[in-house]
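Hi U.,

Before I forget, here's the chain from the pilot set. I'm dumping it here mostly so it's searchable later in email.
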Amino acid sequence: MARLADYFLVVGYDLDKRVEGEGQGRILQRFPEKDWEDSPFPQGIELFCQPSGWQLVPERQPASFFVAVLTDINSERHYCACFTFWECLDNPQLQKAEANELDEVDEDLAVVQAAKVFAPKSLVLVSRLDYTEVFRNCLGLVYTIYVDGLSAPLETVIGNLLTCIIPIAGGSQTDESPVCSLEKVPQALACDWLLACLQPGQEEREERLRTITLGAGDRQVVQTPINDALPVSGSTVAQLFRQLGIVNVLYLLCAALTEHKILFLSNSYQRLTDACRGLLAIMFPLKYCFTYVPILPGKLIEVLSTPTPFIIGVNSFFRSETQELLDVIVADLDGGTVTIPECVHISLLPEPLLQQTQTVLAMILDPELEIADHAFPPVSSQPSALKIQDKEIRAVFLWLFARLFQGYRWCLHIIRIHPEPVIRFHKAAFLGQRSLTEDDFLMKVLDGMAFAGFVSERGPPYRANDLFDDLVANEVDRIRQEETCPHKVMNHVKELAEQLFKNENPYPAVAMRNVQRPTENRQNEPPNKPPFPGLDDVAVQLFIDHATAKLKNAPPVVKVELKAMVPSGPPLGDTVDRNGHVMANSARRLEVVRNCITYIFENKMLEAKKLMPAVLRALKGRAARICLTQELNQHVLQNRAVLDDQQFDYIVRMLNCTLQDCSHMDEHGIAAALLPLVTAFCRKLGAGITQFAYSCVQEHMVWTTMQFWEAMFYSDVQSHIRALYLESEDGEQHKNLEQQDGSGDGREISALDLASEQNRLWPTLSKEMQTERVQKEESTVFSQAIHYANRMSYLLLPLDTSKNRLLRNTGFADVESVSNSYVTNSIAGSMAESYDTESGFEDAESSDVANSVVRFINRFVDKVCNESGVTNEHLKALHTMIPDIVQMHIETLDAVHRESKRLPPIQKPKLLRPILLPGEELVMEGMRVHLIPDGREEATGIMGGPPLLPAEGAIFLTTYRLIFKGTPTDPLVGEQVITRSFPIASLTKEKRISVTIPMDQFVQEGLQLRSCTFQLMKIAFDEEVASDLAEVFRKHMHKLRYPQHVQGTFAFTVGQSGKMVVEHKTKDKNQSLKTLSKNLVKSAKRTIGRQYVTRKKYSPPTWENRSSFQSELDEDEISVSEDLEPQSSLTLSSTMRSSDRQTMSNVVERACCRDYQRLGLGTLSNSLTRSKNEPFRISTVNRMYTVCRSYPGLLIVPQSIPDTTIQRICRCYRQNRFPVVCWRNSRTKAVLLRSAGLHAKGVAGFFKSPNTPSTAPSQAESTSLEQEKYLQAIISSMPSYSENSGRNTLSGFTSTHMSTSDSSDKLRPPKIGALMKQVMGTKEDVPGTFSRGGKWGSIRGSGRLSAYNPDVGTRLAGKESLQANGGPSEALFLRQQKAYLYIIGDKSQLKGGKQDSFQQWEVVPIEVCDVRQVKNSFKKLMKACVPSSQTSDPNMSFLRCLEESEWMALLHRVLQVSVLVVELLDTGSSVMVSLEDGWDVTTQVVSLVQLLSDPYYRTFDGFRLLVEKEWLSFGHKFSQRGAQTLSSQSSGFTPVFLQFLDCVHQIHLQFPMEFEFSQYYLKFLAYHYVSNRFRTFLLDSDYERIELGVLYEEKGGERRSPQVCKSVWDYIDRLNKKTPVFFNYMFCPEDDEVLRPYTFISNLKVWDFYMEETLSEGPSYDWEARVRQERAAEETPEKPDTSGPKSQRHIVWPCYDGLSKVVPDAITKLLQDLQSLEAELGQTSDKWKDTWDKIKTTQRAETKLESKPSFSSSLLMSSNLSHQRRSQGVYLQESAGSSINLAMDCEASATSTPVAGRPSTSTLYSQFQSTESENRSYEGILFKKGALLKPWKPRWFVLDKTKHQLRYYESRQDKECKGVIELAEVESVIPGTPTMGAPKNIDEKAFFDIKTTKRVYNFCAQDSLNAQLWMDSVQSCLSDA
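Structure:
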């Protein structure tokens, strides 16, 4: 029972205390005067009566009512109901003057009114109960009595109010009689005061009703809730949702639960209170336990800046003052908004829950939403009444919390039952079983204060139950089944709502209320009403005392609490792992784990070793980890399991792997289950010394987490206490108690059930029994605490305590750190060899480890013992014990550590040596490393196939490459060898990383090395590699990657003897590199004299970054220059050192000159004999490289331009690269020119119209005139121009141009204008035009009309552009034709250029990609093709990254411009490509144009010539773009040449029959152009090559070391002779075919060069390494195979085997077989090319003979295939790397002599004439048994009918006959039988014998069919004879 009201107050305006208009309130009267003992009077009520401040107002306000809430010091809430009305105060000035007139004068009322002011007065009820409506009625009655002057005295009413007692919850009130009756009360106070107490015997339904009357003829029913545990909300929740909406309220709920600050704003005070009350109601069953002030007075507004969470309401009047609060969520009830500041992150409900909750709430609040789309909506679907809706919403939240907390009782640990239950919640287990460990919201809720209150309130197992307990225990299954079906959920919600409504309104029918209200005219009080009267204290007090005395005499009311055992509900089923789908085949995995453990304990170590990697992978899954703990448990007997070393090692590895994935909170209880095991498994180290597993598994975060130990401790205590009571009850010991949360089986009694039973019995026990039980429990906890102190010392003290290796982040360092701080590593992480000074342990003694462990354990013991009520004496005893425990353990560990060091080290796989190239030397011996998988998945086994990575091996640094060689760590593929290498010169990025090696769980230092050959090495150094050695490795790598000068690159230093191998583990005791270099220089000077003998120049090294220098005598390395002065430095000198004459002869020898002559571009003869009509000449103006450093010495210029003009013109162009001719179309005679872009100053003059008057021609103008002359000269050289004789007619133009398209072409020539517009990027959409299978793309990203020369495209398209006056002009008419010269220029340079209508050239402005773009694009391309780590982010997928790199877009742009130029040249216009500096994009475009236009460049010789001419001679900066030296390091790697090769690859894909070389040839060049193995691509121009004497060295001087090739071309030539690897079998060119590839991005393919990898042997581009590897493989003798027939099948792994080698294409395979057969026959094999040519020739002959061509012939001789077939390409598999076993150095002196043209068919055919003129009737290979004791040998047999002979030869090509069998002597031909030494694997029927008169010949054919043929042929010959 409780008082309805504790205090009644009258609070008024304090006139005396006004401060500057700020009024104050004061309590005028208070009843009772004395505080109640159980409820002290709350302070500061005056502030809350007028929260906005006490103020006087000129007009009377209506009376108001609201309830404020105050919280006292004991967290009790007091509800203050304030009823405020306004009383008239006389204005002090007018008070006296008008006091008399007030009654008489009515007319002046208005004036008088104005002179009045009104002051507020409040009637306040203070109560601990929240009955808003009852309070409103009671205070309203008091006011009505006062206003209307009712007869009932106010004292009586207030006395009755203060003495009214009502039940808190639906308790019984039958035995009560009225507190006061008329007899007992003094007559003065008598009234019809009636407290309607119901008499005994009435119906029970009325027990819960309390009718009260205050003695003024009023009656009210107070409905007390059935169960006061459930909050009473009225309709406040529904109101809150109406004001703010669903999402906003959910945000507020989550914010309140996760302890954020919430502020409500409204203009209404009552609404603020209701909103706060509603929010608290939906939080049930959690209770809000922070600051809660629904109405905050303005004077206390600074409370809002408190750091603690709160829910506060403030009047909107103070909105401005809340603006600057940065971390407060503001809910505006009037505006319906919730504002969340940026810095606040609210965790929302976990996902399916949030969505389902929102759905159900929407169904309640807006039922029409569902049927809004129905064609026939139901008649009405109004939402329920507000009161019902309120309960429905609350029911949804009750349902929500039941789902959130389902199964929470299974995670409660009861650690004491008597005297009071002590309960702890195992948060980690709860989250783990719900698999919500990642969920932010639940984590925060479980950590919060509200949940702690929830556990302490609802944890006890024996208490009164409520609706929530029932729901969470009994309705879980129903909730689970229905959760996905909103309508079923809705029905459940309605049932719950009904219960909630019934609880709040037990009998809604009896809601009688009879309370007077003030009459209408009285509400606005008349002015003459006296102020509220003072009340008689004595009378009221009398009432109160009377009632109190009565209550004291009445018997105490015992509310029968219905206590019962709280049901636990179904245990938490293991919900599926979030990534359950990954672990789909978990049963198989568990089997693997079980088998492996069985093998280990059965000592089948080899089997276990094989399974180990699979087990370690399986242990990523939770099921497998739990399975492991259960399996290991079975092998522990009496808490001990002694293992041998290898078993111990494996078990420890498995334990480490299992623990590695445990989070610090161990949510799946795995560390908990392993804790008893790590103290059980052990191995004997020596006499009496045992090492336990715990000393090897300390490296895990979980052991250093305080919460883990607490949970473990409580779990163990619970099971022991459970055992204690089970024993005492059953008298038998329950062994094998389940440890896991004491959950046990469904049949077993859980600890909570036991506790509940014990709590029920507790009151019935005797005192002695009670104390005995308390003591037993206390000593159980105490013994567990000792046990845990031991366990913790086991896992926290490192094996080697002498080194005090405390990691910085241990957290044991500070005693103060709280229990839930995460400590990230074990006390002394055994990895940190030396700790940093920052860690704060510099001067630490060895006892420091011990101290910190002691501190940690002490902290733990204090916490758990205080919580579980251990006595102080016991706690003190523990504190003295702990240091001793730790010390003892340290001593044991010392002995173990000593012994464990004596164990033999684990055998590591031996390091494999890499195979080096000739001239390649090791710089550093192999360092043991692990190769870690990167983002490419093929090798890791994820995509199927064997897990080749991680692999263990060594990394070798040589002068040329970086090589990893090792074996996979997975034993199943352990016999494979893994090689990954790349040239050191291609290294683009190196970064340090730290790696966890999965097998050993150690974090290692590592490096990530990225190469531009699309290779990535992630290596982790083995622990045996000292860190300084790794540093030395890095330094050496840098030195080799960026030599100071180009002569430091491998191509120059190859084969030099100076060793620079860095030995391991020995310091360099010899002199430093500098002194070494000094000595070398001295010795060099001594040998200078010898230079004259060898006629070589010697240049002393000025680059000191290598310790091996050029040896003076190695002739191969010193250039063949006639110059004998040793030059002191390698700076480029401006004068040529060799004489002009010599240079000239060398220059002429250059291949380009041969090309110029082939193209008919002038000869180098004297001017006299030079024919006058030759339009171009070869100029020697640049022979000394003075005009342009980066151009070649000989240049093609127009005949009419003298050299002096050239020297002037070149200044207008960047880098002096003026326009020169580089190719001429043999048909249209149009020429292709190249130059750099113009200097800015030249542009205006360049396009100046010739008519502009110029007074004094300046130098610039004269230059521009000469430039024009130059261009005019080029135009004049074109036959079409001269034919047109000044182009005055159109007819000539049309005849020459329009008819140029090939007559074979049935398609129209393309509209170049359309193409041009695409390239220039106009806005019009021009359809792609087609010509001869070509297709046009458009340049992306430049889609705006060219501003510079808008009508170029229009004119080319033949469209008319009208003049200003509208008529077409004559000039325009003439301009309808194409220009003679198009200048492809850069948009950005051509601004402001003016076009003259009569000029004969036109400018095509295009946008080109600059070098920076290419560089960045390439970086992104590398990351896409070779990602450094795996990612599941869809935005990082391969195709997405490829697109973002824009590499394909760049290719598209280059190809597109090239195709445009090809088209222009083909239609007879010349083109000048004039972009950037003329050495990047220009080179790409010019080379591609020639490749597309001229079939010669698609052959081996032609392509070589193209690259030498356009890329090398014309000065593409290979060194700078490839960042080859230290000076170019900063500029970074820019693969312009690679881009060109990629474009060629794209064209090759579209026209596979047009190229003599294969794709492999392109990859080979792409690899070696960055590898620095050859000198070909080293320097930036011919000038630099001559400077270094590199250019002509190939020509002169015999080579000493033939195996070292200096030129990549020579190397390719030599290799090509031996193997068809570079040859394209589909090569079948058409004459003068111009290729027009499709250039759209969709037509381009990613080059497989970027993606492929061969882990078996490394990149396949260094052939010697491959050949040597094969030899080595052959030499290793194989064991005799007795196992029976061996399978010929071989598994091919995509990233391991070189596909082209293992599965060669058909033709390569046949050629290989042919060669190997010839080798077996001991014949000298033909060159493959001859064989191939012969085959093709016979094919041609056969095709002519046969009328219907066979498929094979049409494939080989596919010239007659139509073009469509050509462009689709009949693919044969590319012949990359097909290995024919020929050593590269078998031909020592092979030099390449380029063949001028390919041999004609007739010559090939004549070669293949028969050696003798006679007729060969039948021929083929037969095995013949030699004479006596001679073996079987294959021979080439020819059956000659004419001569009647059977002759045989060594081989088919053999000219000399080895023997003859005369058919005349043959007696018979009979089937034979195999004899000794006959060929194996051949059918018996393949043998036949020929018997002659002299002897019997034994033959063997390839098969029985063949044998029959031979026998028949011979037989027929005999019969014919």
